[in-house]
Amino acid sequence: MAAFARVSALRALEAATVLGVAYLCLGELWPHTRSSPFQGQMWRRQQLFLLCSLSLAPLLLGRTHRLCNAGKGASTCVGERTALWVLALVNTVPLLGAALATLWSDEESAAYAAILLDAIGFAAARLARLDLAASLMLSARGRSTWAYEATGGSVGFAEAVNLHRAAGWWCVVQSGLHGSLYIIFYAVRGGPRMAWEATFPVPTEGKLNRLGLVNFYGLLALVAMALLALTSLPRARFYRGFQSVHAGLGLAAVAAALLHDLPILIFAAPGLVDWFAGRYDDLPAGGRRLPARARVIPGTSGPWVEMKIELAGPAAAAALSLSSPAGAWVGLSVEEISAEVHPISVAALTSTSMTLVVSGNGGDWCDRLASFASKRPRPWVLVKGPYPSGGWRGSRSRDPPAIMLIAGGTGITGWLPSATAGARVVWTVQQEGDYLALADRLPRSSTVFLTRASDKAAGLEGMGARGEAAGSGSLGAVGHFGTPLVATIAAAVVGIVAEVIWREHVRPALRKDPPKTMWGYTAVARALPVLLILALMAAVVAAGAPTARAGRRLLKRWRRHSRPATEELGEDCPLRLSRSAGSESYRWSGEEGMAHDVRIGRPDLPALVQETAMSVQAPVLVVAACGPPGLVESARQAVHATRKSPELRHLRIEFCGTDSRW
User: Fold this and answer.
1) How far apart are CA 207 and CA 220, in angstroms?
2) Would you list the DSSP string of 51-75?
3) Is residue 172 classed as helix, strand or coil in its secondary structure?
4) How far is the C-alpha of 474 from the C-alpha of 481, rounded, in Å?
5) d(CA 124, CA 130)
6) What tens digit of pLDDT does each residue of 80-135 get?
7) Burial of 12 (0-12, 13-18, 19+ CB in 10 A)
């Protein structure tokens, strides 16, 4: 009964959040007409209430998710394709609606072209700021307040990065549409001269051209967004250049957009705060220079490189306080190779060390790492993180789901510390050396496929080594170990309220005696409110850091007195079992168990998924895939085909796919 109540509360919160977002989008995207119900003082008050309430939603959803998971689980995997389709519909239907709404205009037919351009351009501007808000909220790293917490840990940085890119591209498209349509709009109404004066801050009749100045900032934002989009296209080939300019161009685009239209800030505030909170947490301890031991694993394709990083001080504290159900990842930079920071999954985590496995086939940087490891086995590395990942987390059922994990190559490493002992693991590697490199860390009953096996691998087929059982649950129990959620949410609310106060009370006073020069108007009427509001949000985030440290000390002291002492993790312990109060932990006590099922050839994923689905007893099967895009897509198609089987109508199959090369 208690579990049912918790799940019901979670469903109610999710429904309320979805309805709140839908109503906010409806009000923002409603055609801009004189009879529109979403305008005036009443709508601005509703907007303020909705944004502040939605800022609290991640905290409530995250805590309710934890209560449900302490029972029998209630999380879900987020459908990326569904989210992309919803994003596409949100960015196209309002434009069509705005165009159709002009058919009932009372204006003269001669002015219809200008009315149409104005309606579509206005709708594009509203869509652009919604896309900007979504892109910013999905750009925070794995400890993201909004995405990670609101989904109960299902959506981390790896899962959100494709949605971040899609929202960013839609923002660029809508911004370009908005800018180009309004330039044409001014040209239709007053010719090329009016378009010139309305776009650039040229003096008009000896007076300050405020319209041209404001629109010029919008043009600068559009140029920054275009450069941001162009530099993101070759990111795989020029990754270092992409990393160097991406954040800077993004912030420049946001700054210019805020100078163009300050109300954008009330939508951008949550994402900006979340991004800044992650960066602020990284300042004192995130970029840590640590010693490491690197070795090339013999017999592996690529080859594979094992990096064992020695943890000390803040690095160990961050690692041990990490909470993630599906592993963790770190930003890794090897000083002797380049300044590039690459996301790498954590394969093993102890109280003194962190182990990473990198394939030399991952690109130029990975290939140079493999060559470097054979010459310099004791490098110094720069580590940012670790950060929690999302992915498979359970299901919406109140009963524990069955888990099937499909991985390719080093894509399995992020799952090794947290794969449940009862999960069906299907791992595809190229040769026997790849399998032997991680065989002792695989859960029992794993099925391994060798796609390019040599004659020596014939002895492994059908036998396999006896693997160790993996712990389940999470890597820790402390959770968001950086700036506390309350401070992050408070900063977002402060930014939203401050913008409304400036717009409703301060700006009308400035209009009575506005600055007469371009630089004065920019500084007082445009830049000053942006800087003040951002400074207020940053101060609230910064105040959360000492609060978090004090809270961690109190929590550690409370646990020390209220719980029995746990055994220390040894240097050779490959896994860190969960210390969460509500999650189950599996530890093998020496029983024999089954050997790995090693097969030569490529896996028949439809048959494997069908076989697993026919054998499970749970009402829900969660199939998670991580590896090259081809493998993830094949797993997705296999799940889709299995769902159509008439024998499995009673079983709900959920799918979570992650490209290991994000």
Assistant:
1) 22
2) HHHHHHHHHHHHHHHHHHHHHT---
3) helix
4) 14
5) 10
6) 777 888 889 999 999 998 888 887 665 555 578 888 888 899 999 999 989 998 88
7) exposed
